[in-house]
Design brief:
Length: 379
């Protein structure tokens, strides 16, 4: 089991290297082509359109059929999506790239996260999810640096090609899943019942709402930081460095999270995380250099870095037996709704009222979410 978990962590790292880099490269390439913040938001929102409709059915399929097929599909789709703009670099191709990246990563994410929970005892589940999150966070640190450097030195087409390379070993390892996947896959699948039955479970419902709020904060940063950095005159390398400070913070907070969990429960830590992220967004409008942006990004990473694995743990723990993949699909659906709405709504807000209004509005959303979470935790 331990070796299988490490393989899953490796796969999440390889998959997220391409996916995280694509979010930087797609946004900057669209800006380079003369796109407005609203047009960039339209492109980035396509990451979420198909997953909104398919995440829940994908989760149910994983409950019934296991993990190998969706992981192979996800890794292969990510690779193809990144090769498209490498071969045909144009703004039009980015629409297809963003759509395929979204549905491919959705399938891979649900499968890998559900697998990490399925191979753990309840007492080990938080540790497994934290290790998976470390794989994502490590890629989130390295990929923006690599992407920014490659864009400045080699251009966008070669950058997309380089981002596709880590997906090749991910495809091979996933295809060999029969050799390393635990034999218990799919045995607990007793899925049945309506989605509304799951939403009646209060802990699950609260965890889904909190997950969506934290996801919106993460998405807004990934979407707006390249645009805001360009507006401040930063190079692609500088923007990648700023975003890597965000990723370093996430890695550190996830390494230290087991210590924090001994002092407070997941629900209480999740509340604190939203307030920390709120404070960071309040500071962004006052930053206009790479160093100040990196410092505030580091603070934001503390909030977002705690939020994702904690919400995932709470969702899995509240799942009925045999419906873990389905509830993971619900979590992805809720997050993808935010992935879709945030670029469109905040892109339009940024075009109409400026970047400061975007940051302050999101800070307000996090403050409300933290307040609601705090009241729920006290009850």
């Amino acid at each position: 089991m331990r070796m299988a978990l490490y393989i899953v962590v490796l796969l999440t790292f390889l998959a997220h290297m391409g996916f995280a880099g694509s979010r930087v490269a797609v946004a900057l390439f669209a800006v380079d082509q003369g796109a407005t913040p609203f047009v960039v938001g339209t492109v980035v929102s396509l990451y979420a359109v198909i997953p909104i409709a398919l995440a829940l059915p994908a989760g149910r399929m994983i409950d019934r059929l296991g993990f190998k097929i969706p992981m192979v599909f996800g890794a292969s789709g990510l690779c193809v999506a990144l090769l498209l703009p490498a071969i045909w670099p144009s703004l039009t191709v980015l629409y297809f790239t963003a759509s395929l990246l979204g549905v491919s990563f959705m399938a891979f994410q649900i499968a890998s996260q559900t697998l990490a929970g399925a191979m753990a005892k309840p007492s080990e589940r938080a540790r497994n999810f934290n290790l998976i999150s470390l794989g994502f966070a490590s890629a989130n640190f390295l990929s923006p640096l690599l992407t920014g450097f490659m864009i400045d030195q080699a251009g966008y087409a070669r950058t997309f090609f380089v981002l596709a390379m880590p997906l090749v070993p991910a495809i091979v390892i996933s295809a060999l899943g029969s050799r390393w996947l635990p034999v218990t896959q799919g045995e607990s699948a007793q899925a049945g019942g309506a989605v509304t039955d799951l939403l009646r479970i209060r802990p699950l419902r609260n965890a889904l709402i909190a997950s969506a709020i934290v996801s919106s904060a993460w998405d807004l940063y990934q979407f707006f930081m390249p645009i805001y950095g360009r507006a401040q005159g930063l190079s692609a390398t500088a923007i990648g460095t700023v975003m890597s400070a965000f990723a370093i913070s996430i890695i550190l907070v996830r390494v230290l999270m087991p210590i924090a969990l001994r002092r407070a429960g997941p629900a209480q830590l999740l509340t604190y995380a939203m307030f920390v992220a709120c404070a960071a967004y309040c500071l962004f409008p006052f930053c206009n250099t790479a160093w100040t942006l990196a410092a505030v990004s580091f603070v934001l990473g503390i909030g977002c870095g705690c939020g994702q694995p904690l919400s995932l743990t709470l969702v899995y723990d509240a799942s009925p037996k045999g419906r873990a993949g389905e509830t993971a699909g619900m979590r992805v659906t809720a997050n993808q709704v935010m992935h879709f709405m945030v670029p469109l709504l905040f892109g339009a807000l940024g075009s109409a009222a400026g970047m400061a209004a975007v940051f302050i509005t999101n800070a307000g959303c996090l403050a409300v979410g933290g307040y609601i979470s705090q009241r729920s935790h006290k009850r």
